[in-house]
Write the structure tokens for this entry.
Amino acid sequence: MLPPPDVEIMTIGDELLYGQVVDTNSAWMGQELGRIGLRVRQISSVSDRADEIVAALDLARTRAQVVLITGGLGPTKDDLTKHVLARYFGTELALHEPSLRDVEQIFARFNRPMLEVNRQQAFLPKTCTALRNPVGTAPGMWFEDQGTVFVSMPGVPFEMKRIMTDSVLPRLQQHFHVPPIEHAVLQTVGQGESFLAAQIADWEDQLPPNMKLAYLPYLGGVRLRLTATDDGQPNLRQRLAAQLPPLRAIIGPYLYAEGEVSLAAAIGRLLQERNLTIGTAESCTGGYIAHKITEVAGSSAYFLGSVVAYHNDVKVRQLGVQPDTLTQHGAVSEETVRQMAEGLRTQLGVDVAVATSGIAGPGGGSEAKPVGTFWIAYADAHQTVARIISFDRGRQLNIEYVTTQALNLVRQNLPALG
Amino acid sequence: MLPPPDVEIMTIGDELLYGQVVDTNSAWMGQELGRIGLRVRQISSVSDRADEIVAALDLARTRAQVVLITGGLGPTKDDLTKHVLARYFGTELALHEPSLRDVEQIFARFNRPMLEVNRQQAFLPKTCTALRNPVGTAPGMWFEDQGTVFVSMPGVPFEMKRIMTDSVLPRLQQHFHVPPIEHAVLQTVGQGESFLAAQIADWEDQLPPNMKLAYLPYLGGVRLRLTATDDGQPNLRQRLAAQLPPLRAIIGPYLYAEGEVSLAAAIGRLLQERNLTIGTAESCTGGYIAHKITEVAGSSAYFLGSVVAYHNDVKVRQLGVQPDTLTQHGAVSEETVRQMAEGLRTQLGVDVAVATSGIAGPGGGSEAKPVGTFWIAYADAHQTVARIISFDRGRQLNIEYVTTQALNLVRQNLPALG
């Protein structure tokens, strides 16, 4: 078997360079390749121009032994990857009957007429191995050329993912000998990168040379990833695991989960363990906390529902906030947000409620309560806890940050329950 | 002045290659550069290894006259861009007093103790021009080296954006002569790329050589972007605009807006023009429709609130769904979703309501109602309209798709109102 290859991901499309589309494919591919121990050496995004695609292919093969290409396989005129690849490998397109049958079946299933442009998608370079695409009309293509593997896939994320999982990853594992690599991910919330790094510095200094800690900040916290690469010694996974207990002790109050778990999913586990239900009463976050909770598969086991109370009448009628409270203290106040959380508990009959009220901006601020002023509250059968947050990085980030803080308030208070 | 440069965006960080972080910076930068008429030639994401950064810098300067670098400027140990750049340009780091004062002020503002690692961030390569970062601790750096401009910025999106807007874009416009470029964006919803392409083909064929149509599909629709590049003739914008009327006629039923406008924002405009209010009653979408509506600044002018009714008791008590209906037809049924929409109108006193109920998966399906079965309803004072949707590409995409369809149902029915 061949030694482990470096991989280059090449994404093709003017829409990436113009910034009309965010490339989420590369991150997913990087994760999946990392899981089987393959290193991504570079990600290159290039235009739809044939000469620039060819220049990028020439460079990629000097850096990597596997080049994974996405994009430029759609049915429309600005997609030309297939033609460029055929020319690059000195071959021509020919009808690939099994791919045509796949395309026909897709149109039959959705009961739509098949167009000539879709039929054209079953024409493939003669020297490639076709990789089935059971969820779309553009098959993947696997080329081997002078020791380098080139794979071309459509840019539509769920089609690319299916071809990667079904075909590309298994084929790469057959083709190459892959050395061990181990990762541990520790998810923290509520502290910034600098603070954590200062706390962790001594521990980090004593790590062996084949282990490396990466700080992956997100809005409201930091994900820590410890990676151990092959050093020729056995038990890599155990040696990685042995480094973790002191780290856990240092970051304890901020550590909400290990592995690829969202904060909402971690809270879901806590709720299920305690047999508790939750609901949200949201003003400024506008349903985003409910969305984060219900994004988690199986959340119907503990999430009952929410009231999004943007207008004050909704706060009064659906959540039982006192009109006097709104008049005296305003909608963005400790008193209101406490009543929202407590009112939701009563109205929906949930064990735990979390509530938000604030000024997400850009309008709506005042001298006393500028944009970026937020109140959040947590309520259960025994206590109601409220917190003020000052944070302004624009409406969308404000909503996201307050949502994370509200979920963290639940995480911090749940353990006292039951 | 110098002729218009090609730009290369270089993002640095193992976290991008491992796929732990999605690169949203490049898309934003591409959009802003496109707006001032600069073309992004390539986006390259490389590792934290010094030799690979240097190799990428060497290549970038052969392709582009401006290299914009993000990442690797944080305070922690895995960030080393600054040191590599100092060596690459044959200089060394020195304390930059104005940057130190900026860093000190940031810590004073947040009332946090400043750490030594943060002080280190004010050490910059001697030959660079420091670009102020008013929202973070890592300044930007502008280098000019043998005719190529290199700019290094932190990878934290809101810091990078601030430095780009305040410093980099104005400096590039001063430095280079930029030819005209014009874009028109037409936003469609409710049809796929192949179908639209077939409808548009004849119109596309008659476009002059300096104009190009790009199809930018998203889940539930396609954004069309027509770009006109400089052909030496005057009135580029007018000539671009003159191409649009026949295109509008072809895609009329699917065209929801022109320019960078979300579907939710377009509906917001329709509601405001008609002086109408809206609310949502959501089961399977779990608050995501409310979130999309409230993501729009100023949405409090027409959005009153929502009930997220995951549990049947919430559907009955908060929305007035008849228990008999749930027993006879189930929660995922035309009858239930109609009552949810109508009930929300009554309960919240909104003019327009939209409701969803379905099986987002992966669990919860049955033979009669498999995962991917969704009902959506629209209700106003005059009518209630319901639609069934069959769609299954996994929980998260299902939620997103149904949300788009529900908003489109509002768009299609609103014009009949008032």
